[in-house]
Amino acid sequence: xxxxxxxxxxxxxxxxxxxxxxxxxxxxxxxxxxxxxxxxxxxxxxxxxxxxxxxxxxxxxxxxxxxxxxxxxxxxxxxxxxxxxxxxxxxxxxxxxxxxxxxxxxxxxxxxxxxxxxxxxxxxxxxxxxxxxxxxxxxxxxxxxxxxxxxxxxxxxxxxxxxxxxxxxxxxxxxxxxxxxxxxxxxxxxxxxxxxxxxxxxxxxxxxxxxxxxxxxxxxxxxxxxxxxxxxxxxxxxxxxxxxxxxxxxxxxxxxxxxxxxxxxxxxxxxxxxxxxxxxxxxxxxxxxxxxxxxxxxxxxxxxxxxxxxxxxxxxxxxxxxxxxxxxxxxxxxxxxxxxxxxxxxxxxxxxxxxxxxxxxxxxxxxxxxxxxxxxxxxxxxxxxxxxxxxxxxxxxxxxxxxxxxxxxxxxxxxxxxxxxxxxxxxxxxxxxxxxxxxxxxxxxxxxxxxxxxxxxxxxxxxxxxxxxxxxxxxxxxxxxxxxxxxxxxxxxxxxxxxxxxxxxxxxxxxxxxxxxxxxxxxxxxxxxxxxxxxxxxxxxxxxxxxxxxxxxxxxxxxxxxxxxxxxxxxxxxxxxxxxxxxxxxxxxxxxxxxxxxxxxxxxxxxxxxxxxxxxxxxxxxxxxxxxxxxxxxxxxxxx
RNA sequence: GCUGGCGUAGCUCAACCGGUAGAGCAGCUGACUUGUAAUCAGCAGGUUGGGGGUUCAAGUCCUCUCGCCAGCUCCA
Length: 640
Prior knowledge:
Layout: E1 6-10, H1 26-33, H2 35-46, E2 63-67, H3 71-92, E3 97-98, E4 103-104, E5 107-113, H4 120-136, E6 140-145, H5 147-156, H6 160-167, E7 175-180, E8 183-186, E9 200-210, E10 219-228, H7 231-246, H8 249-255, E11 259-260, E12 270-271, H9 273-292, E13 296-297, E14 303-305, H10 306-312, H11 314-318, E15 324-327, E16 330-334, H12 339-346, E17 358-367, E18 383-393, H13 398-416, E19 420-425, H14 435-452, E20 456-459, E21 469-475, E22 481-490, H15 493-496, E23 501-502, E24 508-509, E25 512-517, H16 522-532, E26 546-550, H17 556-568, E27 573-575, H18 582-591, E28 596-600, H19 602-607, E29 609-614, E30 618-624, H20 625-638
The structure holds one RNA strand.
């Protein structure tokens, strides 16, 4: 059954204009304007499909939603495109062996094993061959073969990867294959009816990928591509990608002078003055809310004795990611996590059951030796500050405490208007503690989420080595998700460190410990924020909040007076005194995404006014300086 | 770490098949005193990421190394 793909264009698109409130997400707009579609999108989102759903509406960007009724049809189309690509590759490079080639969120890929090393030029040649296959309009034929027949078929073709896959399927299972002309693939489908249906496609990139995702296996060559039902949709998607690249935090970080990465310290970011303003502002918000939620702040050392890490189990389970050093010939380690430090604070004196829960938070700088190839701007670094906290509590307090943590997370994320999804990660292979304890801990997390009403998906085997966890994932500009917040229930550390509290009965008891981080890492979170706001930070966290632009040097003195007045109110303000035309100064302030510009000419100076220009709205005209000051102070306080 | 690609001035990019590095923006200096997204002129800026090699000659070819990018693996 053929279905049409739903496409909606918002914003400045000549053929479809729609008025929306500022700051709404696409989802919110759709919920208002198209309630039926909204339901379909929610369904698509629950399955992890669709793109750009959490994106904010920018003033002049074309934003589209590729989802809805026909998500399945698009999936089939891309899956077929992947087969067409494989067929094209085999025509051009007959010795190529096929591994797997699925449709994915925004396109498709195929993993190939070939003596030939594919180059970007090959991609063009493959695209040309694909176009021929589309032109030939070859029907796709679905067949179900008995297992032995299928094995015989693929062995005959020398398709070793397909044979390996079949051999792992249940013995009595019939095998589903698809044929298009002389091309045969092991495949469950579904597909579109013929290659002619794939009207718009593009091969995007080459990459390596381990066979079956295991680094012990051979590395295959992966070709990524995408396909759409119509050329216009493909073009719109490619345009979207270009726009996303423009908000890459690495690019904006340099342009807005927020941070840098230097060859002298790979993975160790340098925060510049403007980046630090943002960092300090979000830390300030963090402190306010944590104190309101009953946390106490601590700070623990970065270097601690190796014995501590042996006791905590990090030596055994995490050594490969740790940096070591020596002090007076004794072995020490740089902390990769904050828990042991916090535990030492807890253990510094006795605790009564009356004190619990004890919530200790810490902006903890940790170092981890990440693989060089994994480093990525601020998102993946080797030194980062976790906004950590450890909560020690009675076993009976677990559920309520976790609910409270979720509430705090929700509150903070909503200040930034960030969309997130939660995942529950269970016991990994390399884990401490026995199954029963893990079971209890995992259930506690599960119940807390369900009672709070937090939707989540399960990640089997993805927990930390000391306990299960709930992860909060945020999206970057390209829709890649990054784990930020985490709540980990730790039922091993209290044991390892013999943590106790004195109960009502006067006896020692074992507290339960939660390890949690909300931003996850300050670095990663700032990276996410840069992309989320596309560098146009809200007033309250903008590095420079107001820039005063005198038109000539006759206004310099007045400009300085205004600056002093704003500075006194703790507003971040600069004056552009350079001898340049006003258009030039405005342009520069605009490029720097400064929220407010005050244009000062003779007129304003004589009347004690300022001509206010807003980053997004443009010229707002002249107003009394006093009024402006009141308004901006309110806006900052509201964190709007 | 693995596979592939890339590395030229602070930034964005040029330099045919090896012939000895060039532009715009930014910076500095000067002129202009300017009304809502780039005023004009001049100056300065690079051992082409680093080491080694091939060659009469290397930004260009080979090699080692460092870093970056995409993906894999891993993870906040």
